[in-house]
Design goal:
By secondary structure, this protein is of the alpha/beta class. It has 13 helices and 13 strands. The chain has a seven-stranded parallel sheet. Strands 10-9-8-11-12-13 form a six-stranded parallel sheet, with helices on both faces.
Length: 422
């Protein structure tokens, strides 16, 4: 197949998954070329190391400083961003449509999640959607549509409240417009691929559309045992922000006796500095040695996964999560909160422990058990890598993706003659 790729991904698991997909499809003899805006991360696992990548301009919205403009800025920024993405996508699609590609494999957009480009592509088109735009459908920490509690009577009649009320009304309408466009974008694709059964259900809830699970895989030649000494370390992996639930991890570590308490090393590609400061203060107050590491090399990442005795996984409703399986491939067992996609990759008692809910004491006990029972930790680590090799190999993941794309192109070839005869 000649495959066009589009993405607007930040660094992280989604970009690693795309890099692996591109590399694997190339190794299977397919031809690929990529398009993206300048806002996509070009330094973390760059696709340009593998294929030609076309960086197509994307206009950035501007803000008005006058009084009326400041009221409408939240709405206007969304509308301008949507229009800019349409212009960008039209340009990409025009190049793709005239270059003899068999299929488009689109990926998530960091701004809108469901990419716009499907609306303009004339060849078969699939999207690998990491997740719907969760802010619209999950309380993070509250749904944006909910009205705030009514103010007292004195505040109600003040000009300041009226200004806030109008600004909030305009901003919420902007979010409704974006949600409408998200649905329009995702409906434009012939095939929606997702990373877990949990994600498939999320797509159904958010968009009312069916999707197909196409599980990801782990490169076990990169994520592998290094036969390093296991230290009194618990590792966490994921962007340092509220969605990854670092406070859950800190609270769990804090329940372990001080004389046995492990350090918590957290590895992230990006960090919300305000949130990181809050976590550092929480850790200090609870006597937890919290060590953040941001944007480290794969070599250091794999070394730390090999030195840690346990991975703690506390992400909030994570759609899938490569991190636990990457740890498993390094023979590191995982203690995870049983929510989201991790329930499909971690088998309780086999390659880790699943904790029913955010229960710091229970998580602390599971971690302590692995820290103190070296035989259990060793056995579970060996089982973990075997589990990855058997169920989560990168080669099988590429085969699943290839089959889905080939089937879509075959279906299109059958349908085209039928439509031509009508």
């Amino acid at each position: 197949m000649k495959i066009a790729v589009w993405h607007n991904l930040p660094s992280g698991g989604g970009k690693r998954a795309l890099y692996n997909h591109v590399k694997g499809l190339l190794e299977r003899g397919h031809t690929l070329e990529s398009w993206c805006p300048p806002t996509a991360d070009q330094t973390y696992l760059p696709l340009s190391d593998l294929i030609k990548e076309n960086i197509v301009p994307l206009a950035q919205p501007t803000e008005r400083a006058d009084f009326v403009g400041s009221l409408f800025n939240p709405y206007q920024k969304i509308v301008d961003s949507i229009n800019a993405m349409h212009h960008h996508s039209q340009q990409c699609a025009n190049e793709i449509n005239h270059a003899g590609f068999d299929i488009l494999l689109a990926n998530s957009c960091k701004f809108f999640h469901a990419p716009v480009i499907g609306q303009y592509i004339k060849i078969p088109k699939a999207v690998y959607l990491g997740e719907p735009y969760r802010l619209f459908y999950e309380a993070m920490p509250r749904l944006p549509w909910l009205a705030l509690p009514p103010p007292n009577r004195a505040w109600w009649s003040s000009p300041r409240y009226l200004r806030w009320f109008l600004k909030n009304l305009i901003e919420v309408h902007g979010l409704r417009v974006q949600a409408r466009e998200e649905l329009r974008n995702i409906k434009a694709f012939d095939l929606i691929l997702v990373n877990s059964l949990f994600s498939r259900e999320s797509v159904q809830r958010a968009y009312g559309l069916d999707s197909k699970v196409c599980y990801l895989g782990i490169d076990s030649d990169i994520f592998k045992p290094l036969n390093l000494a296991r230290n009194n370390i618990v590792v966490g992996l994921g962007s340092i922000n509220g969605v990854k639930g670092l406070e859950r991890a800190v609270n769990a570590i804090a329940t372990i006796d001080k004389d046995k308490r492990p350090s918590l090393i957290w590895i992230g590609n990006v960090s919300d500095t305000i949130y990181q400061n809050q976590i550092e203060k929480l850790a200090f107050s609870l006597g937890v040695n919290f060590v953040p590491k941001v944007r480290i090399s794969d070599q250091e990442l794999i070394s730390l996964l090999n030195q840690a005795s346990v991975m703690i996984y506390t992400s909030v409703l994570e759609p899938f999560g490569l991190a636990p399986l990457e740890a498993n491939a390094c023979e590191t067992p995982v203690v995870a909160i049983a929510e989201g996609g991790v329930r499909e990759s971690i088998k309780d008692g086999i390659n880790g422990f699943l904790i029913n809910g955010n229960q710091p004491v229970e998580m602390g006990r599971a971690i302590s058990r692995l820290l103190t029972d070296k035989e259990l930790a060793y056995r579970m680590g060996k089982q973990a890598r075997s589990h990855v090799l058997e169920k989560w190999s990168l080669d099988s993941a590429i085969a699943r993706l290839e089959e889905s794309l080939l089937n879509l192109t075959k279906e299109a070839k059958i349908i085209d003659p039928i439509l031509a005869s009508i």
